[in-house]
Amino acid sequence: MNAKMISESDLAIELKGVRKSFAPGTETLKGLDLKIQKGKVTVIIGFSGAGKSVMLKHILGLLHPDHGAVTVFGKDISHLNEHGLNELRKRFGMLFQSAALFDDMTAIENVSFPILEFKRDLDKNQVLGVAREKLEVVGLGVEHHQKFPSELSGGMRKRVGLARALALEPDILLYDEPTTGLDPIMSEMVDNLILETHKHREGLTTVIISHDLPAAFRLGDNIAMLDSGKIRLFGPPEEFFKSQDPFIQKFVSKVKESKRQ
Questions:
Q1: Total-model pTM
Q2: What domain range includes position 108?
Q3: How far apart are CA 133 and CA 103, in angstroms?
Q4: 128-144 burial string, b = 16+ CB within 10 Å, else e?
Q5: Taking the CB of the first residue and of the last residue of the chain, which one, N or C, has fewer CB atoms within 10 A?
Q6: How sure is the predictor about 127, in pLDDT bands with cuts at 50, 70 and 90?
């Protein structure tokens, strides 16, 4: 399906004419339009300062647009009260750049945390059972479950962070620069983990914010290039390779160069 022809019923997230300013006379988002399809992997790329993090905060309802609308599964999230927002956020899983684990909690305690917070009907053994299952799904062996983050490698911490993001069986999984600070081998491991997670969760919508261009073109069903607060191009990878836009070609040339190395 062409990214531009996504029907309303196929949409997980839509940003329509979103504008956001943090100071008079300057806008971070300048009428941003983006449609994210259910069940697909969408990668958001762009230079630092293009507005990727601000856009992500709008999707999570942490920021509201000055103009325009953000809808998630058909709901305009700016019209939701705090309870409604919290209920909607249960449908999101989030893997942060640094995994953002609690230093004073073991791996299994980190994964248990959101389950204890939002699944109050489960007893302690049931919570631990779910946490173990999620850690197994992301490939972290039981011998590591009682370790603290400081005792885990960077790749293991990413696995724990992903297990925690999966804890509530989300419909949308968000990744914020998932390979930042990792070496090439570990980055490839994380990329493969993202793909495996997506393939094994039917209907899961995956959104990745990334600076890693080769990975973006390898992982994404659709890619959105954010430039100066607006989407410059949105579509499957082949549309980027066909584009005659010199700005787009700068990105594509880096991808081609990495393939030759």
A1: 0.88
A2: 92-169
A3: 21
A4: bebbbebbebbebeeeb
A5: C
A6: very high
